[in-house]
Amino acid sequence: MPRYEAVAIHRSDALLEALAGEARIGVDTEFMREKTYYAQLCLVQVAAGSRICCVDPLAGSAPAEFWPALMTPAWVLHSGRQDLEVVSQAARQLPQAICDTQIAAALLGYPPQMGYANLVAELFGVALAKSQTRADWSRRPLPAAALDYAAEDVEHLLPAWQELGERLERRGRLGWAMEDSADLLEPALYRADIDNAVERVKGARNLRGRARRAAVGLARWREQQAETKDRPRQWILRDAVLLQIAGNDPTSRQQLANIPALPESTVRRAADELLDILREARVSTDDYEPPARPGEAEKALLKDMQHAVQRCADELGIAAEVLAPRKDLASALGGARNSRVFRGWRRQLVGEELLRMLP
User: Fold this and answer.
1) How many other C-beta atoms can be found within 10 angstroms of the C-beta atom of residue 120?
2) Do both 232 and 170 map to the same domain?
3) Which of 47, 90, 104, 231 has the lowest tally of Cβ within 10 angstroms?
4) DSSP states of 269-311
5) Phi and psi for 139 in degrees, rounded to 5?
């Protein structure tokens, strides 16, 4: 007998009844995003008590009560940010509470990016199959092997959280794991930030003046097009081509067509829009300066901050990046104070010390 129940989302009454009595459930998802802007939710795996259900969201429309019922218990996930992003797009809501086993494991000294299979092997001595990591989850019907693999992804979530939670509680760290897990429920994490789309363009941060303004406009246009057409950004306009357009500043359709690697179809379809963006960039007075390279004093201070973080991490027996990644420390040197090292449990352990070190 299979370890799971396969459930069409519009026939999920039995699952919804089971959820009503559960305080905590294990959740995982399977999705496809190679050909779309928004990830396509293809399967939702739920462990509720002793039951495992593989829910097919492509089999019909979800009843009105499905997502609210699923969101009520606390979710146990492993490295759940992508799952939450996909669910937030499909359901327009997030669960009320989550517990992330990757976060919990890192606070006990396991590698910060420890995979689910390795964690299960470490905790329970169970080897999970990895045969379906490249499966086409949009395929219907899904093969039994794929469903079995998907069910395995939630089978051990609740026992894993039970074990990790008990260890954390004994060490006074359970609240840390809950705080860090709750950070993943910030809705802004899963909203497209069109105004800052240029930050996704590799190489754009070092542009200045008109070229930077053009890149900002082109990136915003690309983001809007990708979202509207539900196609990957790079299918709309590749980063390298976007930077060539911004740098070359064509003023006519013919000059635009001469940009290497810019598809003729894009010129035919969007030349007027692109030229308008470039025209606006020439007359705009908005200015931007790339981040200044740190001087010797800043480099020395950054090293001192890293040493402080490392000392604290060593005392706790966890990786330094769990406390404060280097990029957060570098941002703090630039004046940012919104990193989580300056709030919650991290602030008490090392954040206050780091603040005293900053000018």
Assistant:
1) 22
2) no
3) 231
4) HHHHHHHHHHHHHHH------PPPPP-HHHHHHHHHHHHHHHH
5) -65, 140
Is there a single domain that holds both residue 301 and residue 253?
no
- Domain identity same for 17 and 84: yes
Distance CA(269)–CA(16), nearest Å, equals 47
CA dihedral 164, 165, 169, 175 (to 10 degrees): 120
- Separation CA 174–CA 322 (nearest Å): 15
HSE-CB at 22 with a 13 A cutoff on CA atoms is: 24
Cα separation, 151 vs 24, in Å, equals 17
pLDDT in tens, the chain (359 residues): 467 899 999 999 989 988 988 999 999 999 999 999 999 999 999 999 889 999 999 998 999 999 999 999 999 999 999 999 999 999 999 999 999 999 999 999 999 999 999 999 999 999 997 766 678 999 999 999 999 999 999 999 999 999 999 999 999 999 999 999 999 999 999 988 899 999 999 999 889 999 999 999 999 999 999 999 999 999 999 999 999 999 999 999 999 999 989 999 999 999 999 999 999 999 998 888 777 788 899 999 999 999 999 999 999 999 999 999 999 999 999 888 999 999 999 999 999 999 999 98
* One domain for residues 303 and 258: no
CA 49 vs CA 46, 66, 157, 164, 282: distances in Å = 10, 18, 11, 18, 62
- The C-alpha atoms of residue 147 and residue 132 are separated, in whole angstroms, by 9
- Angle, CA 310 vertex, CA 77 and CA 295 arms, to 5°: 110
| Residue where a domain terminates, one of 190, 205, 239 | 190
- For residue 63 the two structure tokens come to 């009843």
Per DSSP, 237 falls in state -
- The range of the structural domain enclosing residue 9 comes to 5-190
Domain total of the chain: 3
* Residue pair 17/66 in contact by the 8 Å Cβ criterion: no
pTM greater than the 0.90 cutoff = yes
